[in-house]
Specification:
Number of helices: 5
Oligomer: single chain
Strand content: 5-15%
Distance between the termini: 65 Å
Strand order of the largest sheet: 1-2
Number of strands: 4
Length: 143
Amino acid sequence: MIQQYVVPQFIDVENKIIGPITVRQFVIFLVGAGLMVLVFRMATFLMAMAINVLIFGLTGTFAFFKINGRPFHYFLLNIIQTIRKPTLKVWNKEISLKELSGKKKKEMKKPAPLIVKKSLSASRLTQIALIVDTGGVYQEEEV
């Protein structure tokens, strides 16, 4: 008897803890609030307000903004990874005259001649197909 298993559904949905806010968003807001308090303690009032507006905007972006259904920080990590290690590798070797003159004529290979195959006629193709289909039992007639 075949065993049946329950297949999890909606595995990409995050758990909600406070209303519509997920655990990830809550942690991002905690870190943002901590940074805002730290800036408020260390800077003057006007400078702290300007920096805190920037921190609040970045926190909101990281918490709620999605690109192609993925959180923003994944998008940002993919951009950084692509900049550091691009996957497209192009080899563009240019041989200088010095390298060409340094090689001996014996080492340089001549290009292989092109082999021109004769095209088969339709009647020849049907004969070959008949030989293949019969497993070699049928032999074509010698003319």
